[in-house]
Design a protein that fits this description.
D-Maltodextrin-Binding Protein, domain 2; six-stranded mixed beta sheet; 33% helix; five-stranded mixed beta sheet; globular; Alpha-Beta Plaits; 3 domains
Length: 297
């Protein structure tokens, strides 16, 4: 009888695990494509079916409309700073939640068509961020640079341009049958990009969380921002990022993006957010999510 009960228990447990596995595999994840981008590399760290989209806007729209359960987009780079389009869309156009962050070490490579040498190249293509991150390298070569929607799009494009090169990762070189003639061409070694995972649901507290908000002040007055920062200082809450972006409502009018430690459901965080709400003209919670350490290569 004991063995029978154990068998029944194991059978039920296997059934539950199989169901969980099926549920995870049924999750669809939108990412900035085409295949071969750094965003795909970040998205591949999640469990689910990956779907490529041509722009950050399309990724967010896919999540909003239910074409995808989650979306992965870049938000910040250690060399070039924030990805403005991601911040602007989250602040003003989409009510999605950041539910996870992924940090990748970024290594940029110069890729060419088979048999081409570096002195035969007359131009280079890539996304605007890698072009900026490799600015010194490109200036030394004297190459004309052209921006594309993604690194993988650049790799695909130069297949029809014999003397053109592209900047991207190993995966895009493999996918589009290109030779890598220079590796690690970024201007600074410690090159990392932070990606965010977006969804329609809030994340539960883990005890090791980070929260992102965006807000604007009632008016341009001395000490307004200092006052908001003081709320966090008084409660000993560590800020991990703060930056301003144009509000699109006039010259000199800004909104502020802030990341800080803690979950919005934490009592002290909730109190601070309520205080900010009563003392600012606009505040939006972008999400609370588990903090991610630098990726380990």
């Amino acid at each position: 009888m004991k063995n029978k009960n154990n068998s029944e228990f194991l059978s039920v447990k296997r059934g539950i695990n199989n169901k969980k596995s099926q549920n995870k595999s049924n999750i669809s994840i939108a990412y900035l494509g085409p295949p071969g981008t750094f965003t795909q590399e970040a998205a591949s760290k999640l469990e689910g079916n990956l779907i490529a989209f041509d722009s950050i806007l399309e990724v967010l729209n896919a999540v909003k409309t239910g074409k995808a359960d989650k979306g992965v987009v870049p938000i910040e780079n250690s060399i070039e700073g924030s990805v403005g389009v991601t911040l602007d869309l989250l602040a003003q156009d989409y009510d999605l939640k950041i539910c996870k962050e992924i940090i990748l070490s970024i290594s940029h490579n110069l890729m060419v068509n088979k048999g081409m040498k570096i002195n035969e190249i007359d131009s280079v293509y890539s996304h605007i961020q890698p072009l900026a991150q490799c600015r010194i390298f490109l200036e030394k070569l004297g190459l004309a640079s052209h921006s594309t929607s993604s690194t993988a799009a650049a790799a695909k494009l130069i297949k029809s341009k014999k003397k053109a090169a592209a900047i991207g990762n190993y995966k895009s070189a493999e996918l589009y049958d290109l030779d890598i003639i220079k590796t690690d061409i970024q201007d600074f070694e410690n090159n990392k990009t932070r990606f965010i995972v977006l969804g329609n649901k809030d994340s539960i507290p883990t005890g090791n969380d980070k929260t992102s908000i965006v807000f604007s002040l009632d008016d341009d007055r001395p000490g307004g921002l200092h006052e908001v920062l003081g709320y966090f200082c008084a409660d000993n809450i560590n800020l991990t990022k703060i930056e301003s972006r144009p509000s699109k409502k006039g010259l000199g009018k800004y909104i502020f993006f802030m990341d800080f430690e803690g979950h919005y459901n934490d009592k002290n965080v909730k109190n601070i957010l309520n205080t900010i709400k009563t003392n600012t003209s606009f505040i939006k919670l972008l999400g609370s999510y588990i903090k991610e350490g630098d990726d380990q290569d």
